[in-house]
Amino acid sequence: MTTFVYDVTMTCSGCSGAVTRVLTKLQGVDKFDVSLETQKVTVESATLSQDEILAVIQKTGKAAKVAA
């Protein structure tokens, strides 16, 4: 299992909710945490790549990048 961390610009609970919804539906995500306070999304997956998960998060319209 691999853990990926992303910086995602989220300004309200609606923003974090949108990210939560797409990750809930994404097959291959084992566990995730969306933090509105820290603007971080942590995803654990054994089958998905970092770029595949990033693309799904970006489809919500939020500015997202791999955390440094």
UniProtKB/TrEMBL annotation:
<dbReference type="InterPro" id="IPR006121">
    <property type="entry name" value="HMA_dom"/>
</dbReference>
<keyword id="KW-0813">Transport</keyword>
<dbReference type="InterPro" id="IPR051881">
    <property type="entry name" value="Copper_transport_ATOX1-like"/>
</dbReference>
<dbReference type="GO" id="GO:0006825">
    <property type="term" value="P:copper ion transport"/>
</dbReference>
<keyword id="KW-0479">Metal-binding</keyword>
<keyword id="KW-0187">Copper transport</keyword>
<protein>
    <submittedName>
        <fullName>Cytosolic copper metallochaperone</fullName>
    </submittedName>
</protein>
<dbReference type="GO" id="GO:0005829">
    <property type="term" value="C:cytosol"/>
</dbReference>
<keyword id="KW-0406">Ion transport</keyword>
<dbReference type="Pfam" id="PF00403">
    <property type="entry name" value="HMA"/>
</dbReference>
<dbReference type="GO" id="GO:0046872">
    <property type="term" value="F:metal ion binding"/>
</dbReference>
<feature type="domain" description="HMA">
    <location>
        <begin position="1"/>
        <end position="65"/>
    </location>
</feature>
<dbReference type="GO" id="GO:0016531">
    <property type="term" value="F:copper chaperone activity"/>
</dbReference>
<keyword id="KW-0186">Copper</keyword>
<dbReference type="InterPro" id="IPR036163">
    <property type="entry name" value="HMA_dom_sf"/>
</dbReference>
<comment type="similarity">
    <text>Belongs to the ATX1 family.</text>
</comment>
<keyword id="KW-0143">Chaperone</keyword>
